[in-house]
Protein 1
Amino acid sequence: MEAVAFWVLALAAVGSGVAVFVVGSMARATFALLASFLCVGAELLLIGLHYLGVLVILMMIMEMLVMVVFMVAYMMNPAGLMPMTMLHNERGAFAISGTAFAALAVGIFAVPWPARAGNPPRDPTFALGESIMGSKMLVMMVIGIAILATMIATVVLAAHRGRYDRDGAS
Amino acid sequence: MVEVLVLGAVAVAAASLNAAFAGHRPAEPFHEAARLLTMQRRVTASADRLLTGVGVISLPVAAALAALVVPVGGHVAVDAPVGLVWFNAMEVVAWASVWLAGWGVNSAFALVGGYRFIAQGLAYELPHMFALITAALAAHSLDLRVIGEAQDGLWFAVWMPVAFAVYLISALAMAFWGPFGHPLGGDLAGGAALELSGPDRLVFLAGRYGLLTVSAAVAVPLFLGGGSGPLLPGWAWSLVKTAAVLALLVWTRHRLPVLRMDRFMTVAWTVLIPATLLQMLVVGLVVV
């Protein structure tokens, strides 16, 4: 059952990844990419990494929705109503991606995989936080807030107030 | 699965309540549903039917998937150790739904409505996430049942009022309801839902009631003590509290003006985010 789900999700992830380069509209390409990421998130859920899996789903939806705004804005064909292509420099891209794929595929078979050591922890979410942050928890929290404050300050400083904004309220 | 069906029934009741607030008969939503079901679809030129369909269907599906982890009393459809994050992920699907519905139909006003919701999403999402994390921090868990049970005696709504208030605001914003209904605003002749007709419109608007209901139901384990209460069993208290929060949310649509999201953005980023961060700091100090 799990094996079937794995293969279905894996094929769907690759299939929607291919669709990104086949479809003729920027909006469709973005959501095909989102579908691919959602399949990867579901694969993580399948192997018991609930927090990471749900986080991938959450972040990818938000990310792709922000991306679609910019991708549509920057395309030469903004409405996506006329045919467009996602392929550029086809020969060079094919050579690079073919080499990368071959190298990774060879790596899978050439690397001696280590045997499993230990068992999965009872609470993978807690173990993940411990292994990422551990003794640096306070530093990580402060940095997190500092990054957020920087982002907001940057946006506030960059936002240009136009003549339609009254009393600085908008 | 019973829990999801019960929340679905509560969503239908919310539609009736909305009709009653508007001065119509409570049965009016059923008439409207029958009308939409028998109505022929209006088709726009060069519409992206696939993307529109995905947008329309994903809204109720996301609401139902979110309802899977919502506890009713001690019962929950799917036992989820990270239920809070799952609810957050499913609620963000609404961004995609509204944008896709607005984009796909190839109509200018609908498109503007779709983009409005992305802007609104960026405004409400950060304070919303901080409010969720604050409750999880106090309960040391991302499991909604554990969070509900952690409030024996003192509800989180009482000692973290800022987080609760921000949660209620963002519940309205995520369901683009009432004061946050600008994406479907009358100034855009209906906004993102403008060109949706017939069964499409029914499914989309039903999904919005579903999302509103789920967000009201999640407020109960997060801030209102879950199923705890005297005399009645846990599931009954959960439903009573859900109904009370939902009635408050529905009521706002008829008493509060619609907000422009660029103004809400300013308030959200300069007032709500610092306020929720301070709230989290206070809760963190109390808990540790």
Protein 2
Amino acid sequence: MYKKSLSYPYLVWAAAFIIIPLLFIVYYGLTDRSGAFTLENLMAITTAEHSKALFLSLLLSLVSTAICLLLAYPLALILSNSKLGRSGFIIFLFILPMWMNFLLRTLAWVVLLDTNGVLDTLFKTLGLPRFKIINTPAAIVFGMVYDFLPFMILPIYNVISKIDINVINAARDLGANSFQTLYKVIFPLSLPGVISGITMVFVPSLTTFVISTLLGGGKILLIGNVIEQEFMKGTSWHVGSGLSLVLMLFIIISMVLSSKYDNGEGNVL
Amino acid sequence: MSNRLIDLQHITKIYDGHKVLDDLNLYFNENKFLTLLGPSGCGKTTTLRILGGFETPDEGRVIFNGEDITNLPPNKRTLNTVFQKYALFTHMNIAENIAFGLKISGKSKAYIDDKIKYALKLVNLDGYEKRMPDSLSGGQQQRIAIARAIVNEPKVLLLDEPLGALDLKLRQEMQYELIRMKNELGITFIYVTHDQEEALTMSDTIVVMNQGYIQQIGSPEDIYNEPTNAFVADFIGDSNIFPGTMVEDKVVKIFDTIFPCVDTGFGHNKPVDVVIRPEDVELGKPGKGTVDGVVSHQIFKGVHYEMEVTACGQEWLVQSTKMHPVGEHVSIFVDPFNIQIMNKPESEDEEAVVLDV
């Protein structure tokens, strides 16, 4: 088929920009400033501040992944069943924000949610009770859901719209009502897309520091923020790398769990 | 009247302003193998989908066992469908596929297990319970689709071109299988196909459809030997269809040549369509038949030779076990009994004869 040599540039790329940096992280993570082997950087996660950040990250990522799934699944289901949806226009609308800068989209939420921001002013004018969302975990979840929702919609929509209409008709024909058809046939067949979506929302949510910085007002530390500080504020590359390795472990665990259900058909991105 | 299982009354279905079915009237009897036959777009699949409940007719009623089921959803109907591309549930194994309908209707596990065994035996796939649909061949998947439908003991099995995706050999095998299954189950099969050979092989009754109208209803023999119009003659098997003139009773003129025939009652000098099956055209020595001609093409088809003979300025399709080489001068003779005379349709609409059967 294709010449093997065509893959060499990619192997060089992978070595230079994936393997070697990863080895650096592993090296920094497992050594102290003098270069001696240590597990202390990994154990740094057990300090109260760090483990709290990790726990909060896991919690917020899970919550926003769940919200994304709850929002995306019905939408994908409706779109794949309707003429409007099959034309791809609505899907296009939902994907459109991805064309805009990620930072800008998140900043927009700051303007919306801020004290004396757009929503706050609106509530005040209407005489409705005002509540403070900005700089709370809820605001971070808002941001994560808004930023990552397209990554949940796309794979689910792709898988559902590829289900043979006659398979659904067959379920109806064999006596299943709409609800039974959904949970016995459509949902199991769409699982690969659901798994892809979960992975693609959960992983970036878990590692984000931009969303938590902007919408958490620097008061709420996620594990991403902790790692960022270790590197950017010059505290310790070693501790930062160690924490990164721990975080990687959690991501690997989540990927392994997902891949158990994934037969590989739903990976669209 | 009493044994009418399904009665389609005045069914009209319109898609995007196009009438797919126009005032269709048709009934189905119990325990028959009935085939809806026609070219694509003739309305046969739409008819089947209306029976299965996947389409609602714009006009007309569907009566099943004396009850009006026109607006009943598919899951409330005691008919089951075998889909063209099998439509198996790929996330379930064979046993789970077959058990699907039974589980929904809340049957006991012992009953379901018995049914799965019975159904797999019926379709000659014993021991396949744990296999996944993807690991089966097309023919096997289609058998499973049939098994999945029949375990629910439907009164009627609807089959939508179920053999369309199979290769020729397998298709022929499955035709015999389907006849056997129908006889073992003792239920009505309603079969949709565009393949006239399939229809002729399996059916008790064939309904030939075109452009939303029923062209002819009859046994395979009737449809083949006595087509009611040029469309049916052309669609079922190969035919020579010539414009002719009915000079008087039992005499038809084709391109200025008089042929004796057996049809009467068409009147005098009336334009008609004349249908002659290629296997009914007999070739002989020049001057010994009704008209002389020259062989213009000749191919070997296995059981017979197929030749084209130019006579009366027209090409005659001839099938014979005796070979006549290209260029040979021959005579054409047709037994009067084998000449079918039919009225010319005056318009498209008249082709849609209202059939009262």
